[in-house]
Design a protein that fits this description.
Elements (H helix, E strand, L loop, with lengths): L7 H10 L6 H5 L1 H14 L9 H15 L2 H13 L4 H15 L1 H17 L17 H13 L1 H10 L5 H16 L6 H15 L3 H13 L4 H15 L1 H14 L14
Length: about 270
């Protein structure tokens, strides 16, 4: 039987993310961990050049919230903080997840994040990042929603919703966009990448994934960037959900699209 060995690139990446750490699974399940590390920390990374390491880890954290992987999230949050993701960004990833996966799932991740930050000597609470209040959240949220989703699409959502569902549209504008997307700490294009990652990992949200492919294009993220994000998620969310999200990309952002890289919008 041929043994798999961690290659130098995967070993270097692992040491950078988890300095001095030896996985207990590397002892109990060496073959799996060896070829998983080669895949996730080398082979996959070679195809994610459209996003930097920080963005890749941030979207991976977002996806882990969607799939409920609290233990893996703790480990990867430590790695993300090690390579430069800030405590504010870490908290904003968790907050951004609330309207997409629900507080029932986010609750454990909020406590996990607080625990990791506290263990690193970071005093909580962090400085508030909200820019809206009860009197402004609806107006500013609706404006943000139209900027991201598109004015025609948002107007259509309101026009097509029955009278007894209008409050849901108002919740989307005031809560999802007014309370969350207007926060500082992470910019709108990166928030859209996080949302895309969450929805792709969540499963059963194909229409929303497709909608947020378009939203990502609207805020300057390219097809190449979205594919790079999905490539980085693949080892953690599996092939079925990755392929479903790729189908949404192919539908909403055909390969012939003129792309705009993250650097172009900087």
């Amino acid at each position: 039987m041929t043994a798999h060995q961690p290659n130098p690139a995967a070993t270097a990446a692992h040491e950078r993310l988890f300095p001095g750490h030896v996985s207990t699974l590397a002892v109990t399940d060496p073959q799996l961990i060896e070829y998983f590390d080669n895949f996730a920390f080398d082979e996959v990374v070679r195809h994610t050049g459209e996003v930097d390491e920080r963005t890749r880890l941030m979207t991976q954290l977002a996806a882990m919230i969607s799939v409920g992987a609290v233990a893996e999230y703790r480990v990867m949050l430590g790695a993300a903080l090690t390579i430069g993701v800030t405590p504010v960004e870490a908290k904003e990833i968790v907050y951004q997840a609330v309207p997409y996966v629900g507080m029932a799932r986010v609750f454990d991740f909020l406590h996990a994040t607080n625990g990791v930050l506290t263990d690193r000597g970071i005093e909580l609470p962090l400085e508030g990042r909200s820019t809206t209040g009860p009197d402004t959240r609806m107006e500013q949220g609706l404006a943000m929603q139209k900027q991201i989703v598109g004015e025609k699409a948002v107007d259509g959502m309101y026009a097509n919703a029955p009278a007894d569902e209008q409050h849901i549209q108002q919740f989307l504008s005031g809560n999802c966009f007014g309370d969350h997307y207007t926060r500082t700490g992470i910019d709108v294009p990166d928030r859209e990448l996080l949302t895309f990652a969450m929805l792709a990992a969540l499963g059963g949200a194909d229409a929303q994934v497709k909608g947020h492919v378009t939203a990502n294009l609207n805020v300057g993220n390219s097809r190449a960037t979205l594919i790079a994000v999905l490539t980085g998620l693949l080892p953690f969310i599996g092939y079925p959900r990755t392929l479903n999200a790729l189908a949404a990309v192919d539908t909403a952002a055909p390969a012939a699209e003129a792309t705009t890289t993250k650097e172009d919008r900087a």
